Amino acid sequence: MGLSLEQKKAMVQEVAAVAEQALTAVSAEYRGLTAVEMDRLRAQARERGVYLRVVKNTLARRAVAGTEFECMIEGFQGPLLLAFSQDDPGAAARLVRDFSKECPALTARNVAFGGQLYSAEHLDRLASLPTREEALSKLMATMRAPVQKLTTTVNEVPGKLVRTLAAVREAKEGSAA
C-alpha cells in the first residue's frame, strides 16, 4: 500500500527538519537485507543517536533540497537509506561501516559533510573521527601535559638538592671514619 500525499509531505518535512540539524549524512544501499537485519540496523542507529530512514528517492531529493546535503541529490538512485549524524559527526559513518561488516548487503554510496559530497571510500575517514568525549579527553591530556612536566621539573629541584646533600654527608662521614 502506497503512502498518501499527506504522509509523503509529513515524511519530507521530518527528513528536512533532521537534515537541517544534522552534522553529516551517509546514503547506503540496503538491497538484500532481510527484515530482521533492518530491525537490528534501526536498533543500533537508535542506540548511537543516528537518524535512519528509508525514503523514496524523489521524496529524499525534496527533503534535502535547501540543506547542506543537497549535494547528495544526484546519488539518490536505487533502494537507499539515509543516515544522519545529529550529535557526533562520525556516528552515521561508524554505524554503516560496522553494520556492513556484519551484513555485506549494506553498501555505502555517498557521504556528505560540510556541504561537500564524498564517495564511499571516505566512509572510513569520517568513521574514524573521535566522538565528543574522546576529543575532549585528548584535548585535556594535551593541555595537562605541559603543566605536569613543569610540576615534575619543579619538584625535581629540591629532590636533587636533598640527594646531593646526602651524598656530601656520606662522603664526609666516610672520610672521617
User: Radius of gyration, Cα only, in angstroms?
Assistant: 28 Å
Largest β-sheet summary: 5 strands, antiparallel
* Terminal residue distance: 105 Å
Mean pLDDT: 86
The number of helices is 6
* Biggest sheet strand line-up: 2-3-1-4-5
Shape: elongated
Give helix % range.
55-70%
Regions with little confidence, pLDDT below 50 for 5+ residues:
none
Order of helices and strands: HEHEHEHEEHH
What is the percentage of strand-forming residues? 15-25%
Number of strands: 5
* Computed structural class: alpha+beta
Function: Forms part of the ribosomal stalk, playing a central role in the interaction of the ribosome with GTP-bound translation factors.
Family: Belongs to the universal ribosomal protein uL10 family.
InterPro entries: Ribosomal_uL10, Ribosomal_uL10-like_sf, Ribosomal_uL10_bac, Ribosomal_uL10_bac_type, Ribosomal_uL10_CS_bac
Organism: Halorhodospira neutriphila
Which terms summarize this structure?
elongated; 6 helices; alpha+beta; five-stranded antiparallel β-sheet; single chain; 177 residues
What's the gist of this structure?
The chain is of the alpha+beta class and 177 residues long.
Q: Would you write up a description of this structure?
A:
The chain is an alpha+beta fold. The chain is 57% helix and 16% strand. Strands 2-3-1-4-5 form a five-stranded antiparallel beta sheet, sandwiched between helices. It is elongated, with a radius of gyration of 28 Å.
